[in-house]
Fold each of these.
Amino acid sequence: MFDLSIRHEVDDTGIDPFKLVNMETAKWVGAKLDVEYPGHPWFVICDTRGGVIMIQLRGLMPSNRWYVCKLHDVKSDPGGRRTILKGAGEILERYQLPRRGFSTHHWFDAMERAPLNGRGHLEPLR
């Protein structure tokens, strides 16, 4: 598992001391998602200062919607997998996409069921 307990000293240079650990954690989460749910266009942001990992399925989810995992839950989970995979699995379930991997047929069906309007918000389900 990636070491999420890294601490940084804040300096006066204006450089974000959390940038490297945020990027490495986001890469680690993305790699886990790609192994378990291959081919889906996952987008992951990690904010170690805020204590969250945010997961989004690009192209289907509105830009203002995220599945948020608490960093504390990921750290206390052996291997960090269960919390992250639960969140991603719930996203796939919401859009009725297969967990086994990306399927163009299922993707287009999901786009018809939950289209985004011009402002990036989900239209109501019919």
Note: The chain has one domain: 19-113.
Amino acid sequence: MLAPKYPVAQYLNEDKEVEKVHFSALTDLNKRAYLRGKDLVDEKGSVRLGIRYPQKKTPHFYRLSQRRDELDGGLNEGKDHESHKNNICTFLSGYNKYRFGFYERPWAEDKSKFGFEDVIKLNKKYEWTTEVAFGLISGKFIRFDILGKSLDSVELIDSYPYVAIEVVDSHFHSKEAFKILLSATKNIPLIVIYYFVSKSPYLNQTKCPDRKNGYPKVRLQYHIADGSLWFSNVRLEDEDDSFSPDSPDEYYEKIRERLYAKGYIRR
């Protein structure tokens, strides 16, 4: 008889302690019934396991799926973060179209007027949800503060991308999470918008439409798209060639320090 690939499974018992069980215990009907109600994983904790009990073969554990761990797990933001997150989600959920962008002085005679420049303009209803776990790579996921997806289109296309909104107060992404977001936005239609609590309501804000059939606006400055961090409509590396996503570790460190130095993130 071949040895099973997963001879031992582990789970959390009623006392929240890790308990291990050998596959030979699966011959007991009561034990099998008990274990089916548990979140079983392999000894490394990286694979979710199920139970098989074939009538003419040895009972064993089998792989259900790879277990995904949160990239930025354990970060705790304050009440301001939660308030802004919930308010933005409620605001967006009330509309059927959206403009995300920034204000810029137009080249016109009246220099006092500001024009709103779009980073992305959506003319279809989106579903907006808070605290969404989004699997980006095998075995890892990131939990977005807010994630929007089109209700009308199931196609993963640039016209109607996933729109993630990260509300930042005193914490920024880990280096690993940031690097994965750079890569993900190159490979799938995903844009990650940053809403900094410290810059609200001046540089980051939500604005109701000027007229009944107008677009609501979300004002932003920084976002990730196509493998780069953008300031308004300029890639950071085009503004300053000392920044380079080709050296992602250094890119992250310089961006993080820039955000702290300019007061975007509360120390």
Note: The chain has a mean pLDDT of 88.
